[in-house]
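Folding problem:
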Amino acid sequence: MLEKLAERCAALEKLNISLIGCGGMMGAHVNGFRQLYSRGLRVFEVKAVCDVKEALAREKAGLVAEFQSSEPRVYTDVEEMLRSESLDAVDIALPHNVHHTVAAMCLDEGLDVIIEKPLGITMRAARIIMDKARKNSRVLAVAENYRRSPENRAVRWVVEQGLIGEPRMIVWCSAGWSPGAWGWREDKYAAGGSWVFDGGVHLADLDRYHLRREAVEVYAVQKTFDPFRDGTRVTVDDMTMAIIVYEGDVYAQWLWTRAAPGRGLGLRMIYGSKGSVGHEGLFSGHAAYDGLFIQKENSVEIVGMGVLVSRMFEGLKPEEKSRMFPMGITDTVATELYDFYDSVANRRAPEVDGLEAYRDMAIPLGFYESALLRKPVSVRDVEELRVEEYQKEINEKLGIS
């Protein structure tokens, strides 16, 4: 199977792609391209890189040149790059407030797009991108990588196999102390919200992916305990507590905060009628509680995450294994990039398309709506733009209609 995949990729034309936004996250994308290249999946040709900070663009171009036969050209203006280059696709990793403008521009140029999460700064902004992709018949993929790890694939396998029984609850806690300012992410007009939005789409995606259920209702409270950090005014929350009701009477409890001095906490656990499964290492830096915990009469049987991953791999069909982990690659950014390539090559929907990412966004943005309105809100109402009191101010500021 691996040999056939490598032969197939060698026979296909490369996808000419540009990298737009050369900050920290694009470094992970460049490493993903490197991983594909090193395994013989040389399906991309990075033709150009673009960032308003030329030094960042040149840095990423140099990194690409280390594994690619040619060095990408450097630009500081997206429109100039689009005029000058012959491209098939773009990879966008920009501040949230310009996702919709840059993605729409590229889609109107007939380019396929992979874009970092969240898809847009608001639900209306995300709809602009989705509508452009539909109108221009382009592939739109959202770089949602958490679900792609072997551990999170294994968690889904555990739930599907019924090893924890009927799902009942999810608990996610990420509490710690982070006193410094975090650049543009402190500004709600640039970021849309705190990490509970920026990173919360990851957790919303995991909830939906693992449960295979949609969120029905959310209720949240929020607070900004520290409105100034390193002299920077903070206009997003630094603490969110939330409850999510999923289809089938499954409940999730989230706590995210960076305003908790002292001992930090990190945990995500799915509880069912027979036991629980967790991948704590993703959130706390260690794997003390990773694995499956099956409740017995007087004890708890523990199956480690390594064993679960092995069993999951054993149960995968060759085509499933090749799709999830092409050429055995487990780097989650590399596999999302390959999924994007395969979607473009075969004109199919990527695993995380615009609609999937839109539904992920609706959960944490629902927290903001709920906290402002001081009542539970329907996730469907958030998706269908019937509730957007919090987002209204952002939309008006950015001219989103």
Notes: The CA atoms of residues 196 and 256 lie 6 Å apart. The mean pLDDT is 94.
